[in-house]
Amino acid sequence: MQYQWDESSKTLTVTSDDPNVESTQTIHQNDAVHIRIRGSIKKLGNFIFSNYTNVETIEFPDSIEELGNNVITFSLITEIRLPFQLKTVEPLGPFEYNYKLEKYIINPNHANFKVIDGVLYSRDMTKIISIPPNWNSKIFTVPYGVITIFCSATDCLQNIEQLIFPQTVSYIEGILFKPKVIKKFIIYRKVNSQDQITWAQTIDDFANSSVQKNDIKYVYSNVYSTYFKENKTAVVSTTNNNNKYEYSDNILSHDTNINTIIYPKSVDKISSSCFKPMSHNSFYIQDFTGYTTITIKNHLYTTYCSNYLSIHFSLSFILLL
């Protein structure tokens, strides 16, 4: 292991040709602001940069394939770019104790992982890996289609007050370790469903949480809405696209930032109360690949329905100022 220190920028460069780095570092623990890791490293083990409390950035080489538990802790890092060759993260999470962390960044062509709204998922979006502790919103809707909640996915959440799981979730490896302001935990299940969620039930579940397992609210519905923050879009999903459903859920009714609503043809009516507080009063409809998009426009009233639009759109969908 080789170290290079730049006093002017408070940058610590760590270089290693050893494929496995397991030893905990202490060099410049109290004054490093930037950490750069170089070399052909394949694995960073547990607690490599523990308690580097002044670090604002960390750079990983793309060669890293595995990140251990708590690779860096209690830093001031707000965003982390993940290595391009990354294949595995340990279950307790490499970054959960970084309370300023707002988002992950990843190459869109990454083979194993995907980032949406700064949140880390498996590439196929069936597993949520990590919500950054400082993800900046009061409500988080796990996207429809996610099956597994990774052990550390919801650890140390600083801002989320409502956590909502879709009907597709069937396995929870770990949940709500030391959330700061959690108030509600809602799990959706299909109507008349006998499907059970498998809980790993670790000792850290609901640790220091104001919401406990017996406080979970179960909602039985065949419709679910996911909110994507970056493009201000709500995507409505249904558990059976061969049936027709009315969407009347109000879980996103408080969010005034939504400007696009996408829903499948299995939804033939949307109650006006679902998105009522939006400060818009006009919209247009456009059909594509089996989905309908309502894009909300300010000071413009245009309604466009293509001839092949097969669903019935209820004019009771009124967006009030």
From TrEMBL:
Protein's recorded name: Surface antigen BspA-like
Region (Disordered): 1-22
InterPro entries named among the record's database cross-references: LRR_5, LRR_dom_sf
